[in-house]
Every structure is written in C-alpha cells, then in structure tokens.
Amino acid sequence: MIETRDLTKVYGTVHALTKLDLKLDRGDVFGFIGPNGAGKTTTMRIIATLLNPTWGEAYVCGYSIYKNPKDIRRSIGYMPDFFGVYDDMKVIEYLEFFAAAYRITGPARRKVCDQVLELVDLGYKRDELVTSLSRGMTQRLGLARVLLHDPQVLLLDEPASGLDPRARIEIRGLLKELRSMGKTIMISSHILPELADICNKVGIIEKGKLLVNSDVAEVMRRVRHQTILKIGVQSLPDEAAKLLEQHASVETVSVDAHVITAKLKADVTDYSDLPAVLVNAGCRLTLFKEEELNLETAFMELTKGITA
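RESULT FIELD:
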C-alpha cells in the first residue's frame, strides 16, 4: 500500500531524509517514531504528494508520487499535526463543506457526514460551532474529515499531540477501530507505549535515517540484551538476594524494599528453577516476573536524540 525507495530530501547542506526505504502492506498499522526534526513529517508530506523529494520514489496504492499525485490524494487521508478549522461553521457544515470538495453530492453527502460523526463519537455535537469543541474533539473532527471519502490509507501526524489522558485513550480506541476496518495506517507519535498497543510494525528514524523498520516484537528482541527479573518476597529480602547472587544464572542483584531485581547472564533464557530455590529456602514469594520492555526503552536504546 505504501512503498518508498531511496527517498531523500535535501535542504541546502541539510539532509532531512536519507535513502528512506519503507514498505507497508494492506492492513498494516505502522508507528513512526523519532525525535523532533528527525524527518517524520517530511516523509508523510512527500507520501501525501504535498512535498517533492530531492530524489527517490514513493508509491501509494500502486500510484507514483510523480505520475499519479491526484490518484494518491483520492486514496489517502492525511491529518497533519496542526490543522486549521473554520470556527464560524457548525460541525456538520464543516464536514459537508469538505464532502463537497470530495465531490460527494446529494443525499449521500449528509449520510456519509453522519456516519463519520458517529464513528468518531461526535454525533451529539453535529449542530455545535466548531469553535466550541475541545482540543480532543477537534482532533476527532479532523479525523472524521479525512475519513469522508473512505480512503484506503491514513497518514496521521501526531494525532494525539496536546491531548489530555482521557482524549488520548479515546483517540487510541478510534485508531483500533480503524485498524479493524482494514485501513492501512501510518502514524507518528511521541506517546510511545500507546503505539505498541496499536501498531504491528514500527520504524525509528533519527537524523533523516531509518534505524529500525520491523515488527514491534522484533524491535523488543533487538534491545533486550539480558533478562531482568522482578522478585517480591514477604520477608528477609537481603537473605533472598544472597541466595540469588550465588546462583549460576544470575549476574547481579539489587534490593529495593521487598522487591529484588535480578539481572541474568547474557546467555541465560531458562530461569524456571529460581522460584524453587527461593521457596525451598523458606522465602515466601509475592512477585516473580520478567521486566517488560516497551517502545520508550527501545527508543532510548536505539537513538541518541540527534536531529537533521
């Protein structure tokens, strides 16, 4: 659905993008991660045919950004980080205006506007002025606007930017619903843990270069060098820590209150005997689990915070 080949954008001596290669299949939800200035927005604007690359090629739904820009625009819904709204319009008028721009006419126009309003849970605001909407509602209205023509591909640049926790949860739920509808979604965000819950693929970009482009699980495996265990004991944590230190699988141990952190040696993948060691020594376990990695950990591990 989306493919880029050696996509490069140069401003003078600055390389905003350098030979970017991406390939997204139908139904993929791709999380695009990177610090500010890394090249995320530049990539999306090129794919949306709003910016020409210096060289390289990109295809959307089989259409070339050079030869078929109008076909691409009919196939995508692009939602920038910051977008203007017409404050003096009602919500339904705002959507009908853009539906007319998509050449949706007659009774079909009102029907599709009502459908997208229900999808983004703004049906009860249909006759309110756009200026009365909160930031979260405005984001959902922007998403409704790009869904009017039922695009196959969605390009969402920081859709949860500036939202409060409740609004972020609502946007995340909406994105999951769009995923279930089979949409191919490219989404950039700094809210990294939430991307892992939505996306099946992730790309990490820094200084215009794509450092990682793979499944979320593969990214986690890439940054996990050693297994770390969190072990809770009801009493005598120092004695339990000493037992663990003597075990052949354990490299280091630290204690914080009644929770022990045990880092296993690099080649150890089987630690099934450790609970028995502690229980047989009289320790009563309240917690025993492997420390979870998330996209924030992966992001900090794989990037240096450098911008183009």
